[in-house]
Every structure is written in C-alpha cells, then in structure tokens.
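User: Second chain of the day. Same drill as before.
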Amino acid sequence: MLEGKHVLVVDDNLDIVVALSDFLELNGCNVISATTGKEAIELVKHEKIEIAILDVKLPDINGVALLDAIKKENPTIAVIMMTGYSTHKDIIDAMRKGASDFLLKPFEYDNLIMVMIRALRERTLLIEKESLFKNLEDKKKIELLNRELQAKIQELTTMYNISNQFNKLNLYDDVYERMVNIAYDVTGASLCRFYIYDDNNKETILFKEKRDMEEDSGDDKILFTTDLAWVYNNPKRCLVKDDALLIPVMIKGELIGFLTVKKKKIGLEQNVFQQESDLFFLKLICEKASSQIENRILYESLFDNIFKTHMSLITAINKRDSYTENHCKRVTEMSLALADRIGLINVEKDALRVVAPIHDLGKIGVPDTILLKPAKLTDEEYAIMKNHSNLGQEILSQFEILSRESIIIRNHHERFDGKGYPDKLSGENIPVCARILSVCDTFDAMTTNRPYRRAASIKEALQEIERCSGSQFDPAIAEEFIKMILNGDYGKK
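Assistant: Same format as last time:
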C-alpha cells in the first residue's frame, strides 16, 4: 500500500528523523527529510511529495503554520501532525488547516502505517476535489467531498476528546462513571448504563447509569438478557436492537461487563450512518475504559508490593532506635492533622501518608555510635547525621513510583529562608509536604526528653516555632500548626 510513495519527514530531532526514515524506507517509501520549517517548504516547492509527517514544535516555525504553507503550495499533500504533547486547540487548528491525522508521541509504527493508509485514501479525495475545482465541473460532488472532509475532522476531534477525557482521569476518579458519561454525551443517548457481568451466576448487575429527565426509569435489568451469549461470541462484539446498542467491555479477553445505550426516538432507525458512527465511538470508549481499568489493577498490585516493602522499612527503622520509632509515629499524626487543617489536596495527603512514617529512613545508614549517642553530637558527627536526608532519598528513589515521595524526604530539613540542607531551597520551592514535616518534626524533637537535654514545654516550643516563622518555617503553615496545638488536639498535655 505504501510502496513507492513519496514521504517528507520533518522533525528537529535528528534521531526521530533517522528512525522514521529507516522504517518508511523498509516499507518501500521514498523518503526525504528536513529538520526546520524553512527546509521543508523548499522541498515542497521542488520535490514530489504525497505525504508529509510534521512535528508541531520546530525551531523556526510552528508546525501548524508549516501545515498551512504546505497546503497553500500543494493542497493534495496529505499531512500528518505529530507531537509529544498537545492541546485541544492545537488539534482543532491543525484539522481546520487540512491535517489528515494527529499522532501523539511515542506511537507504534503499526499505528503510523494505519494512519498513513487513511491519509492516502483522504489524499485521493483531495486530488479529486482539486481536480474538480480546477475544471469547475461538478459542484455537487465538491460539496459532498467537503462534507466528507468535515465529517472526518469531526470524527478525529471526537476521538481526541474521548481519549483526552480518559487520559485526564486520576486515581480518585470513577472510570465506570466517566465511561457512561462520555458514551451518553457522544451518542446523544436518552439512557446509558454499565452492567457488571457475574460470570459465576451468568447474570448482569446494573452498576452505573445516566438518563434524560424524560426517560422512564424502567427496569434495571439489561436490555438484551437473552442475547448476551450471542453478543459475546459475535465477531463484531456488538448488538443493535430497535433503538438500543450493546457493547461488551473486555480485559485481556475476559468479559467484565456491558455498556448499553438507548437512543432518542429520532436515532438509529432513521440514520444507518449515525448508527455505524455510534458503534465506532462506543467501541473506542469501551477500549479506553478497559485500558484504564487494567492499568488500575496493575497499579494496585504494584502498590501493594511497595506497601509491604514500606512496612519493612518502618520495622527496620524501629528496631534501630526506639526514639525514632515513637518520633515518626507522632510526626505522622501531627502532619496528617495539619494537612487536613490547611486543606491539602488528596494527592499530597497520600504522599504524606507514605513519607511521614519513614521521613528519617536515611538514619539506617548512620552509624550506631552517632545515632544512639547519649550526648550532644560534635560538629563532625552532626555533619554525618545531616546526610540522612540524602540517604533516605537514595533508598526510596529505588522505587520509581515513589520518586516524588523521595524528594520530600530529601527536603524535609530545608528552611523557608533558604539556609537549610541539603539543597538550600527556599519558600515555595520546598515541597509543601516537606514544609509540613519540618514544623511537626521540630516541635516533636523540642518537646521530647533526650539524654543530653530536657524536653521543652508546649508553651516554650510554640514560642520557638512562632519566633522562627518566616525564617525556618513557612509562616502560613506555622500559624496553622500553632492554632492546632492550642486547640488541644495534639501535643503533650
């Protein structure tokens, strides 16, 4: 399909240009390349080009502007845009200016081939459209081609919106609810439901639903109970019946449920094209939802293993030093209470739950002669002790999923005025969780008896925190901490 096709590859990353060129040449394409927009425009003027693959970000010209220049020079060139990051506006602008498709890096080569084949089919329409414009022969056919091209733009935009809505999901969002809402909006349904499939009892259970106000609540049973086996075994994996659609949701070949959509009365029966479009988008929605669900299953399994390792680290810390054990427990309780008080977002709270119990993890690497010394440390010993924040980061950063938490451990001894350690960060450059740990850690250290000094009173400790507000501590966090302790929720009575 691609043999002999003339392809222009434009990217400022030479490695990507070489990789794409080698792959396309292996597939029989004649490839020319450029690393700037100016080079690309010159090639378009003097070389035969059927498909252009452009990066959105180029050193001298925006990729969308280059697309516009290419289309003005030769409207029949099929243009595929690619980028490592994009916005909805980028895609809409590119489609309006005539892009055939949009690829997000990194992409599979097989996906590139499919996109190029679709682009060549579209190019056939472009060539025919251009011919019709030049000959002024068939205005109705031109209008039809325009509608087809507009429909293609609308289809790609809808596909992007579907993918984007799933990609924006975080761990606290409900995948099933998002799937139902997207299907409802995209198809213009009056009723959309997701049923969980109970394989043991061979029955479905209604789990999520969205409906029009006018839609009768009706039965919560699946719309096509007698047809489930047929749908599952049907190669098309779908069922259209009256004004309703049913699509199975699968993970690695295993059925987990069904997505059903009931159309409004003006829907499926009167418009076969719309029916095919709805089925296409519903299958895409189910695929995206399946991928999200599978990723969460894998994430939960991975996080469970890391949590067990995390508990082992806490046990190791506790066995080294009983003071560190009790200190970490108290700091964890105060930190989480303070996080609630200042309205910390859930993602940050989760990080704090992981970090606070092991914020002194690096003390594992501090010699017993220093860690357990029953007297004040010398300057040399204190320098070794200070390195525990670096050691803690090194240990925790071995778990890639906890890289963010490892930075908090590294920075929990930074000062708001930039005079802390190890990086001398200041102000809001210090992670908010580290700023919370700093005040709680200091308060607990001051109010705990040590062999070489007596514990300070609550009043004395709070006065010291107030005095160091704005220098050692974030003033806003210090203020809330003082209020929390004075309320009597925490601290030594």
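The mean pLDDT is 83.

User: Great, on to the next one.
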